[in-house]
Amino acid sequence: MSTISKRPTVRMPSVQEDKAIIAAARSDPDAQPLTPTQLKAMVPLKNLRGRPKSENKKQLVSVRYSPEVLAYFKSTGDGWQSLMDSVLRQYVASHSRGG
Questions:
Q1: Domain interval for residue 75
Q2: SS3 for the chain, per residue?
Q3: Is residue 3 part of a domain?
Q4: What is the pTM of this model?
Q5: At what angle do helices 67-75 and 80-96 cross, to 10 degrees?
Q6: pLDDT at 80
């Protein structure tokens, strides 16, 4: 059995119809066409989704910690991984200077 699409064909407006559509849009104060500046400022929605890109990109690694270290940081609640990162950064900073 063939699979013929039942969708209606899309008919593009003629030049006169297009001009009438644009004129109607411009006359409606609630539905103004976008200006060229507004069109240039548009970005794809997928670029706006998710977490903002960080300047300091973190790397995903697999590390083994002792149970008591993990228990301590997890007991601090939400954000324990960021806290652990902060503590390790402080350690690196204090041991990198003059050393």
A1: 15-47+59-96
A2: CCCCCCCCCCCCCCHHHHHHHHHHHHHCCCCCCCCHHHHHHCCCHHHCCCCCCCCCCCCCCCCCCCHHHHHHHHHCCCCHHHHHHHHHHHHHHHHHCCC
A3: no
A4: 0.46
A5: 120
A6: 96
- Are 32 and 23 a contacting pair, CB within 8 Å? no
- Total domain count for the chain? 1
Amino acid at 43: V
Residue 1 lies in a domain: no
Amino acid in the structure at residue 51: R
Contacts 24+ apart (CB under 8 A), 36-45: none
Please check whether residue 74 lies inside any domain of the structure: yes
In a domain, 80, yes or no: yes
- Residuewise pLDDT in 10s, the chain (99 residues): 566 778 888 899 999 999 999 888 889 988 877 889 999 999 888 877 787 777 878 888 999 999 999 999 999 999 999 999 999 999 999 998 765
